[in-house]
Amino acid sequence: MPVDIAAPGRAAPLSPDDRRAAIVEAVLPLVAERGTEVTTRQLADAAGVAEGTLFRAFGDKPSLVGAVAMEGLHRASGPDETRAELAAIDRSLPLEVRLAAVIELGRHRMADVVRWMTVLRHLHPHTGPGDLSGPGQTLRVKLLQQRDEQRAATIEGLTDVLRPDADRLRVPLDVAVALVESAIAGTHGRIDHLLPAPSATVVADVLVHGLAGDAPPPPTDDPRP
Q: Are 86 and 160 within 8 A, CB to CB?
């Protein structure tokens, strides 16, 4: 359905800001899938508007794709969402199961952040943080502040996930949280793409039991012998 046309007897046309927000919301999944390769025709079809409406709202395709990427990055690093996801993990589950869930959530969020950062880099390959000005600089400041808030929410949530087994840990809770964060950052994807990252179940089991010990090996779909 077009987002900017009002027929007689229908609601008044959207304001420019609301129209831009509606377009961003409508095309966000498409840009997440296709990145900068998306065409204006595809964007217009996804938003249910004419291509001319896109240009009137955003000026050009890079401006629209950039606005979508910034919104996607904002959502991927939202502290409220992080806090809610971690709070939803059942604290009665075994520690290994809880950690596997944490790792899966962390990998998913990191993949989203990397996806949107990649789109932005493709749009502005020669632009560094210091080159932003005006609205771009304001948005960057907001994102940096949100990143700090998301980091605090992550530490808070991970601490709460680990707390039921605090008496079992060989290291303080804050050190355990840092180790879990490092495991997520180091295993959410392989840079060389030659082998898949170890499954969350395997990583969680190693975090709990260590690389050496008497515990039976965890189930794995890792193709390596």
A: yes
